[in-house]
Structures are given as structure tokens and as C-alpha cells.
Amino acid sequence: MSSPDPKTENSDSQPPSEELGDSSTVWKDPVESGSPNEEGSDPPKEGGDAEEEEEGECGFCLFMKGGGCKESFTAWEVCVEEAEKNKEDIVTKCMEVTSTLKKCMDEHSDYYQPILAAERAAEEQVKKELEGDKEKEVSEEEAAAMKQARG
């Protein structure tokens, strides 16, 4: 007798969504989805403290808080929110906390590598655009000078 096929052997004991490779059931982390845990904890209170429980917090924020720089990132978030609320310049107001966050991310570069790589790529793009603008300005200045020389 041949041995039974493991795929068909378990077909009665497990629903299809439990099989490996089936993406019809996606596990959701209760922390990320904002849903209460299975033990029936109270849902987040409406109008509660925004810092304690941010409903629908962005994926970037969750990622940043998931690494070793949670405290630095939270301080940066608070600074940015205060600056926006008070219509202050974010760069000037938050320079110190931004620097602290950047240093922390560099110290934990194994975790924050995707963000650091994206930041480097953005810096390179800005450099290229600035260099292109400078070349364009020089060309325009040369053209104006030549036009004036022909007079």
C-alpha cells in the first residue's frame, strides 16, 4: 500500500486557510491593528490621551518605535507636534531632538537600516538636483555673457 498524501490526509482536520502558502487569512498584530486583545480588554477610550493610545498610528511610527530609539523618536514626535501647534519652525525648534534621534538610529543601524538607506538616497537625489541647477545657472550666465559681448 502506498502512504497517504499529506495534503489530502489533513483536508478534513484543517480548514484550507490554515495550509501553508494560503494568503486568504492574514495574521494581524493586535498592537498594530488597534484591536483589543483576545482576553476582552477594554477598547481605547474615545477622546483619551493621544500619547497613550494613538488610534491608527502610521506604519513608519510603529516601525520607529519598534527599535531601540523609541524614546528618541517619541521626543522628536512631541517636538514636531508642539512646533506645528505653535506655528514654529520645526527645523530650528527640533534640531537637538532630531540630532539625538539620528545618533540613536546610527547606533542601532542594524534595525533602522531601511530608513537610513532611504535618507541617504534622498540626500543623493537632492545633491544631483542641486548640481543640475548649478550647471543650468552657469549655462544661462555664459549665454548672457556671450550675448552681452556680441552686443
Automatic annotation (TrEMBL):
Q: Where is this region: Disordered?
A: 1-56, 128-151
List the InterPro entries: GCK_dom
Q: Which domain of life is it from?
A: Eukaryota
Could you tell me which Pfam families the record lists for this protein? GCK (PF07802)
Report biased composition (Polar residues) as residue ranges.
11-26
Domain GCK span(s) in chain numbering: 56-130
User: Which regions are flagged for Basic and acidic residues bias?
Assistant: 1-10, 128-137
Q: What is this protein called?
A: GCK domain-containing protein
The protein's organism comes out as Brassica campestris (Field mustard)
